[in-house]
Specification:
- The chain has 174 residues and is of the alpha+beta class.
- 33% of the residues lie in helices and 26% in strands.
- It has a domain of 120 residues: Gcn5-related N-acetyltransferase (GNAT) (Aminopeptidase, 3-Layer(aba) Sandwich), CATH 3.40.630.
- The protein contains five helices and seven strands, in the order βαααβββαβαββ.
- Strands 1-2-3-4-5-7-6 form a seven-stranded mixed beta sheet, with helices on both faces.
- Strand 4, helix 4 and strand 5 form a beta-alpha-beta unit.
- Helix 1 crosses helix 3.
- The longest helix is centred in the N-terminal third of the chain and has 20 residues.
Length: 174
């Protein structure tokens, strides 16, 4: 994984404008929408890297093949200002990279990086009930489903019945 860079605009378009990739996230973006989102992501990541003492709002890394360097997808963390020690993880893989356990490897690497370098106590994963691949990954990596009576449970909107929320807490309970 490496931080997103200006040279990744085309990958971003391929992901966010692709109906198959976006099927469990939202409607595919237009190229203009993808470009605007790319600029926002690039700016947020640049800010996070240039100012490591300021809590980030968002960070995004490119997932690339270790041998060839070919880009396969993106993985990111999004912080809520109300809970600065908790971030939500998100991952998107190109169709050619799906089903090859690359997402598992990337999520594992980001979890380790988060524990060591980002002062995160919890990672949350929210995803569509139809996204069985993400559910398999989070369960395999030890995430637990958020219960409805959890104190961190956010107010849900109308789409919540179609969403699952899992979390991985790094704080050891004594």
């Amino acid at each position: 994984m490496r931080p997103i860079a200006e040279t990744d605009r085309e990958l971003y378009r391929h992901l966010y404008c692709n109906e198959r990739v976006m099927r469990h996230i939202s409607q595919p973006f237009s190229q203009t929408q993808a470009d605007r989102a790319f600029e926002t992501s690039l700016k947020a990541m640049t800010m996070a890297l240039q100012h490591p003492n300021i809590p980030p709002s968002y960070m995004l890394w490119i997932i690339a093949n270790k041998t060839s360097g070919v880009t396969m997808g993106v993985i990111g963390l999004n912080w809520n200002k109300a809970t600065p020690n908790s971030a939500e993880i998100g991952i998107m893989m190109l169709p050619k990279a799906q089903g090859k356990l690359l997402a598992d490897e990337a999520v594992t690497a980001l979890i380790e990086h988060s524990k060591k370098s980002l002062n995160i106590k919890e990672i949350k994963a929210s995803f569509s009930t139809k996204n069985l691949a993400t559910k398999r990954i989070v369960k395999k990596l030890g995430f637990k489903q958020r219960t409805s009576n959890s104190p961190l449970q956010e107010v849900k909107d109308i789409t919540s019945e179609n969403q699952l929320e899992y979390f991985l807490n790094f704080v050891e309970k004594s």
